[in-house]
Amino acid sequence: GENVEQHPSTLSVQEGDSAVIKCTYSDSASNYFPWYKQELGKRPQLIIDIRSNVGEKKDQRIAVTLNKTAKHFSLHITETQPEDSAVYFCAASISGNQFYFGTGTSLTVIP
Amino acid sequence: GAVVSQHPSWVICKSGTSVKIECRSLDFQATTMFWYRQFPKQSLMLMATSNEGSKATYEQGVEKDKFLINHASLTLSTLTVTSAHPEDSSFYICSESKGPYEQYFGPGTRLTVT
Fold first, then answer.
1. Do A103 and B42 touch (CB under 8 A)?
2. Are the CB atoms for A2 and A27 separated by under 8 Å?
3. Does residue B51 contact residue B32 with C-beta atoms inside 8 Å?
4. Rounded to whole angstroms, what are the CA distances from B92 to A21, B19, B53, B61, B105?
5. Which three-class secondary structure state does DSSP give residue A60?
6. B1 to chain A nearest CA, in Å?
7. How far apart are CA B3 and CA B25, in angstroms?
8. Which residues are CB-contacts of B51 (< 8 A; sequence separation ≥ 6)?
9. What pLDDT digit, counting tens, does each position of B58-94 carry?
10. Sign of torsion, CA B57 B37 A100 A60?
11. Between chains, do B59 and A1 touch, taking CB under 8 Å as contact?
């Protein structure tokens, strides 16, 4: 099955700085890559996603890049704010069905 | 968006008993439902996929006789943890799909087995 690795496991940044989280996947058939934000004890919330026919997607302060050849995708958060503090998960999916999640990154934005 | 509910939100049970968790889509009909478990500070691990009216497909390493999934209708799926043990204590989250690329997560159920 699909194996998704995510780095770093923890990340601390100063407010206003950028944060980058990286994921790799193993199954070349994966073609859909969502990113989720999860606050403690709550459900994951979709923040951005990208499909394999696109190399980059941006939504305000959040962007995702995808390198299909390297089987690598990244989340970029610019101008971080304290409310961005949460655990972020990447996932990989074949055609948007079963999602296989990365191991998570705990992001702390220091005011 | 779409609304998915889970019940109960938390449950404590004794070792050896069974616990049923419900997952409902409140404003849409879900073609497919997924069950995940999440240990503290760990990732969501896909347990099984179910389509209405058919048997669930379990991921490798997940015991189908221990984690019984019933997908009775397009709006309801249940997960029953049978003969629960302390190591089954976890956060169980369902998600429901309106179609490919559209998964909506429930709020989760925290199970504690004593």
1. yes
2. yes
3. yes
4. 25, 12, 22, 16, 11
5. coil
6. 11
7. 6
8. B31, B32, B33, B71
9. 999 999 999 999 888 888 999 999 999 999 999 999 9
10. positive
11. yes
B112 touches chain A (CB under 8 A): no
B-chain CB neighbours of A95 within 8 Å are 100
Residues of chain A contacting B44 with CB distance shorter than 8 Å: 44, 89, 99, 101
How distant is the Cα of B40 from the closest Cα of chain A, in angstroms? 10
Residue B49 token pair: 């996929």
Secondary structure class of B81 (helix, strand, coil): strand
Q: Which of B42, B91, B100 shows the shortest C-beta gap to A97?
A: B100
Is some CB atom of chain B closer than 8 A to the CB atom of A88? no
pLDDT tens column, A48-90: 999 988 899 999 999 999 999 999 999 999 999 999 999 999 9
Structure-block tokens of residue B107: 């709020």
Size of interface A-B (CB pairs under 8 A): 55
Q: Hunting for tokens 């043990």 — which residue is that? A: B85
Measured in whole angstroms, how far is the alpha carbon of residue B53 from the centre of its chain?
A: 16
Please state, in angstroms and rounded to a whole number, the distance separating the CA atoms of residues B97 and B104: 6
